[in-house]
Amino acid sequence: MNFVEELKWRGMIHDIMPGAEEQLAKEMTTAYVGFDPTADSLHIGHLVGVMILKHLQNAGHRPVVLIGGATGMIGDPSGKSLERNLLDEETLRNYQAGIKKQFAKLIDFNSDAPNAAIMVNNYDWMKDMTFLDFSRDIGKLITVNYMMAKDSVKKRFSGEGDGMSFTEFTYQLVQGYDFIHLYENYGCKLQLGGSDQWGNITTGTELIRRKLGGEAYGITCPLIKKADGTKFGKTESGNIWLDPRYTSPYKFYQFWLNVSDEDARSYIKIFTMLGREEIEAIIAEHHEAPHERKLQKTLARELTCMIHSEQEYEKAVEASAILFGNATADALKNLDEETLLQVFEGVPQFRVPRTEIASGIAFVELCTTAAAVFPSKGETRKLIKGGGVSLNKTKVTAPDQTVGEADLIAGKYLLVQKGKKNYYLLIAV
Known about the structure:
Elements: H1 3-9, E1 15-16, H2 20-26, E2 30-35, H3 47-58, E3 62-67, H4 71-74, H5 89-104, E4 118-121, H6 123-126, H7 131-137, H8 144-148, H9 151-157, H10 166-169, H11 171-186, E5 188-194, H12 198-212, E6 217-221, E7 234-235, E8 238-239, H13 249-257, H14 261-271, H15 276-288, H16 294-307, H17 310-324, H18 329-333, H19 337-343, E9 349-352, H20 354-358, E10 361-362, H21 363-370, H22 377-385, E11 389-391, E12 394-395, E13 402-403, E14 413-418, E15 422-428
Parallel strand pairs: 2-3, 2-5, 3-4, 5-6, 9-15
Antiparallel strand pairs: 1-6, 7-8, 10-13, 11-12, 11-14, 14-15
């Protein structure tokens, strides 16, 4: 596989430094992407970098995952207006362990292949370096004029944000020093990153040239945005995380399932490992019947299986069918409590004394007296007569139908449904 050609057709190249393609064609090349450890999990905003490293390894080259323990303490000025919080070393190591666990599912670190990936943390080589050492060995190599000419710096001095601290100003030198370290210790000749990193990457290649007389290269990919121009990966409730503790597999699946057609067309190339012909066929099929959402369904399946598992994907599909489709009572009863609460997050909830359910209660009493699901017994009877009420996905046929403990889902819940879209969750307490 030709790494650059693969990225090109996927729309994943923004800038490429002269000589980079020739270097990749010449030999197995070591390349790195930096990730700042801002949590013990990656989120989908990191996925572009992950996928680039996955394609790099598939093409026979060696990926280096650089955890920015030192640089993450400073804050990169590229496209941001705030500095980051200082992390203590214990927190940093915990974050790194969590991130490596996620990477290990996607990239080969453990085989004896010559291109097995490695993970490094720049805190390890920066922590003992003194300011005087850094100023003497690195600072003198690059002029302030050179640093000021970078777009990421110019933007901050032209009124975007509150100016820039000295710490942030030196960021490109610190990142450039990472490239020197990886070049000298791992033979790393290529840095990969988002288009906002171009200035930092070129500073690194310039430092290698001036300090070591070596040749190094950079390739960047476009920053991913939604078709409407808003930021990719953010929702009203925040980031979409890869760790199921922060974003459930169901919510993760739903995120991809709900992207627009236009976004799905680009995301399926960027975020899946499907081949060109298969993707083109899926796009054509989607075009013929857009209402079937073939693109979104494929995207959601590929991503959920890759990040979580096939089992979690199947659970997410089942859960979606319960909320949006014609799922059966059996499917509802098979849901575990966690998934049930994720699916029905935000629907009206009512607490019902368990004693009333244990002794058996008429449905009409349950939904009016025990819990104010419906305004009156008369209206409840009318809805039941019209066939518009279900309990646990089964039509209620008689107002006096008895509801008991055997009806509880996960020993605790009852799901009342009015019409197609109105759900009410009753919780036995």
